[in-house]
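Researcher: Next entry: UPF0235 protein PI95_008510 (Hassallia byssoidea VB512170).
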Amino acid sequence: MHKKVKVKPNSKQQKIEEQPDGSLTVHLKSPPVDGKANEELIKLLSDKFDVPKSYIRIKSGLSSRQKLVEIDKEG
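Model: Predicted structure:
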């Protein structure tokens, strides 16, 4: 499954908002420095979709706020 994700780093609280078009807006506490926000994003998505972190890959937008994330349900 592929999801479009809009990341908002340096937020006061962590939360995931599902948008009407199926994309996600993810509020992260981490700053976008040294991959910390990407690590937090992967952890939050693994909790939401109940899959191990290794099943989630950022396909594009590694250093952007707009990302395309692949979530593999079977590994």
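Model: Note for the record: The first helix runs from residue 36 to 49.
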